[in-house]
C-alpha cells in the first residue's frame, strides 16, 4: 500500500501502513487537494506552488502550467475537463488533459468580487470545485471567503447560491462541497462573513440542498460545533469534523475542541465518534481504499494519520511533520 499525504510543507509518501517515517517527494508548500480520476492520467495535486501530475504513485511528477501558481482546488468532470481553482480567486479549465488552460472569467466578474478576501490576506481563493458525473456542465465553486457559486454551462456563467443561517446571514466562508446526486449537495462552512467589518459574523455549519442549490437546510443545529472544514462520503455514511472555535485560535496548537461526527441518513442525525487526538486535534482530511477509511489531523508541527478498524474504532497509524490537509491511498 502507498499513501500520499498533503501537508502545509509539501507532499509526503509512505509505502506501508502503519508507518514510522515518511518521505517528502515534492517541496511545494501547502498541498490542499489530491485528486484521482478515471478521466485523466496520473494523480493531480493542488499545491501552493502549482498543480502537479504524479505517475507511478509519486515516483515521477510534472508541473501542469496553470497560469496562477497558487492552486487550492482541482476537479475532473466526467467529460474529462480539468478545473483548477486558485488564489487569487480565479478558475481555469483545460480541455486537453492539462496541456493548455483558459480562465473562466465569468466567476471573477461577479458583482461582489471586490470584497472577496480571507481573514488573513487581501485575497480570496477558490477552495472547492465539484459536480456530478451525470451533469458534467453543472459545477459548484466555493470561495473562501466569497460564497458558493453555480454554473450550468461548464463554467462560463455563474450565479450565487444564497446559503443563509437562522439569522438570515449569507454563508460566504465555503470550505468544502460534496455531491450526492445531480441535485443533492452538502456544504461545510466556516464562520467568516463578507459583510461584517470584523469579518466574523456568520454562523458557519453544514448545509444540504436537494434542488441543486436553490434552497438549503442546515444540518448541524443541535450537535454543538459550527466550524467545519472537511466532508467525506463513504458508501451511505457521511463523516465530518467540527470545532467550537476557529483559526487562529487552534491553528498550530492543541486546542481545537473538535468532534468527529458520522451520519447514515444524509445528515438528519449525527453521532459523535471518538478518535485518537480528539478533541485537541482537528480532522482536516479523509480518504478510503477497499478495506479502510483514513483521516488526517492538523496540529501544527505533527500531523496524525488515523485508520478505522473493522470494529469501527479509530487507531493511529503514523505521523508526518506538519498538518495533514489532504491524502489518498493506493
Automatic annotation (TrEMBL):
InterPro entries the UniProt entry points to: DUF6242_C, WD40/YVTN_repeat-like_dom_sf, Xyloglucanase_GH74
Signal peptide: none
Sequence ranges assigned to domain DUF6242 in this UniProt record: 47-222
Pfam families attached to this UniProt entry: DUF6242_C (PF25852)
Top-level taxon: Archaea
Full protein name: WD40/YVTN/BNR-like repeat-containing protein
Amino acid at each position: 500500500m502507498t499513501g500520499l499525504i498533503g501537508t502545509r510543507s509539501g507532499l509526503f509518501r509512505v509505502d506501508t501502513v502503519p508507518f514510522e517515517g515518511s518521505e517528502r517527494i515534492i517541496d511545494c508548500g501547502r498541498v490542499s487537494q489530491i485528486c484521482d480520476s478515471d478521466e485523466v492520467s496520473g494523480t493531480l495535486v493542488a499545491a501552493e506552488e502549482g498543480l502537479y501530475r504524479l505517475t507511478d504513485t509519486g515516483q515521477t511528477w510534472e508541473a501542469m502550467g496553470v497560469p496562477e501558481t497558487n492552486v487550492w482546488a482541482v476537479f475532473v468532470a466526467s467529460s474529462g475537463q480539468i478545473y483548477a481553482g486558485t488564489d487569487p480567486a480565479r478558475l481555469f479549465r483545460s480541455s486537453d488533459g492539462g496541456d493548455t488552460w483558459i480562465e473562466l472569467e465569468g466567476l471573477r466578474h461577479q458583482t461582489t468580487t471586490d470584497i472577496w478576501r480571507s481573514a488573513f490576506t487581501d485575497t480570496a481563493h477558490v477552495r472547492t470545485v465539484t459536480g456530478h458525473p451525470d451533469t458534467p456542465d453543472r459545477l459548484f465553486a466555493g470561495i473562501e471567503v466569497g460564497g458558493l457559486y453555480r454554473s450550468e454551462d461548464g463554467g462560463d456563467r455563474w450565479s450565487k447560491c444564497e446559503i443563509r443561517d437562522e439569522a438570515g446571514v449569507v454563508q460566504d466562508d465555503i470550505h468544502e462541497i460534496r455531491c450526492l446526486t445531480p441535485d443533492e449537495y452538502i456544504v461545510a462552512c466556516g464562520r467568516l462573513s463578507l459583510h461584517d467589518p470584523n469579518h466574523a459574523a456568520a454562523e458557519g455549519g453544514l448545509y444540504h440542498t436537494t434542488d441543486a442549490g436553490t434552497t438549503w437546510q442546515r444540518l448541524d443545529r443541535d450537535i454543538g460545533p459550527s466550524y467545519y472544514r472537511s466532508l467525506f462520503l463513504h458508501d451511505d455514511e457521511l463523516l465530518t469534523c467540527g470545532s467550537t472555535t476557529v483559526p487562529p485560535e487552534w491553528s498550530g496548537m492543541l486546542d481545537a475542541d473538535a468532534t468527529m461526527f458520522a451520519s447514515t441518513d444524509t445528515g438528519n442525525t449525527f453521532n459523535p465518534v471518538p478518535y485518537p487526538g480528539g478533541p485537541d486535534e482537528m480532522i482536516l482530511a479523509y480518504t478510503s481504499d477497499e478495506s479502510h477509511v483514513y483521516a488526517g489531523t492538523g496540529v501544527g508541527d505533527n500531523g496524525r494519520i488515523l485508520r478505522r478498524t473493522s470494529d469501527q474504532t479509530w487507531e493511529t497509524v503514523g505521523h508526518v511533520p506538519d498538518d495533514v490537509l489532504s491524502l489518498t491511498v493506493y
